[in-house]
Write a structure and sequence with these properties.
- The chain has 2 domains: 123 residues, Lipocalin (Beta Barrel); 112 residues, Lipocalin (Beta Barrel).
- Helix content is 6%, strand content 49%.
- An 8-stranded antiparallel beta barrel has the order 1-2-3-4-5-6-7-8. It has an 8-stranded antiparallel beta sheet with strand order 12-11-10-9-16-15-14-13, with helices on one face.
- The protein has 2 helices and 16 strands.
- It has 268 residues and is mainly beta.
């Protein structure tokens, strides 16, 4: 493992500070006058299979921002689209679910995240919507209008080499994953992740390799590489990657709340 120098932090932070023009779709939607969204009969049924399931919702953020969105669930992953009804342009949603509670990211093609939705997947009730750029948090009323079993495959459809990124705003968490090549069942990659300002603590790995089975890579660090118990996996999907720690050991290796876990959108 090689460690980065201070200049790397400056270069990466400068590269990450792009302001998404599409962020206006979210911020402009927050207005004062009341509005009503289309209503549908609530659905409380449970799907017959959780392997691949489609969920469709109607919602309202802060009482005056009507939205509709849908997600497909495959195991613990979610992928779909959200539409702000006054804007009309679909925004990609990617997230995960644990114990019925889901967390969805509004994530743009450049990896910028404009909003975070969270709540119980089944039934109806209150969710939360958070703007990571402005640090604004609003209640969100949600009605589940449809559940069905459908066939969809989240698997990566092409070469996994390329650049992956997430950004929670100029002062928020940043992450970059670069896959240089896949050769002889081995992935060659770099990761650079930073905590939110002002600390900007780093979790950086350079010129690393890990066994790769075509879908996921498992990285393990031995005792002479800082922590014998540190292990994480990189899973690749159609248009994004997810890194998580085995046994949720996010405190290993880097310290100071720095870690490499997250959902990274493929940017090129």
């Amino acid at each position: 493992m090689k460690f980065t120098y201070f200049w790397l932090l400056l270069v990466l932070l400068t590269a990450c500070q792009t302001t998404p023009a599409s962020d206006n779709e979210t911020s402009e939607a927050i207005v004062e006058e009341p509005a009503t969204s289309e209503s549908k009969e609530p659905v409380t049924m449970e799907p017959s299979s959780m392997d691949t399931t489609y969920y469709e919702y109607e919602g309202n953020i802060n009482g005056n921002i009507p939205v509709s969105f849908h997600v497909y669930r495959q195991d613990d992953l979610l992928k779909g689209e959200l539409i702000y009804k006054r804007v009309g342009n679909p925004i990609t949603l990617i997230g995960d679910v644990e114990g019925g509670y889901c967390r969805l990211l509004e994530i743009f093609p450049d990896g910028n995240i404009s909003g975070i939705l969270s709540g119980q997947m089944t039934g109806n009730g209150e969710w939360h919507w958070f703007n990571p750029k402005k640090r604004e948090d609003f209640d969100m009323s949600v009605t589940l209008s449809k559940v069905s079993d459908e066939t969809i495959n989240f698997a990566a459809k092409d070469d996994v080499t390329g650049s992956y990124r997430y950004s929670y705003g100029e002062e928020g968490y940043l992450g970059n994953l670069t896959v240089h090549k896949v050769q002889d069942n081995t992935i060659h990659y770099d990761i650079a992740c930073f905590t939110q300002a002002p600390a900007r603590n780093m979790a950086v790995l350079e010129d690393e390799t890990a066994p790769f089975d075509g879908k996921e890579a498992i990285e393990k660090f031995s005792d002479d590489e800082m922590d014998a118990n540190c292990e994480f996996r990189i899973r690749f999907y159609d248009g994004f990657a997810k890194i998580d720690y085995v046994d949720d050991r996010m405190d290993c290796m880097f310290g100071h709340n720095a870690h490499v876990s997250g959902i990274f959108r493929k940017t090129k």
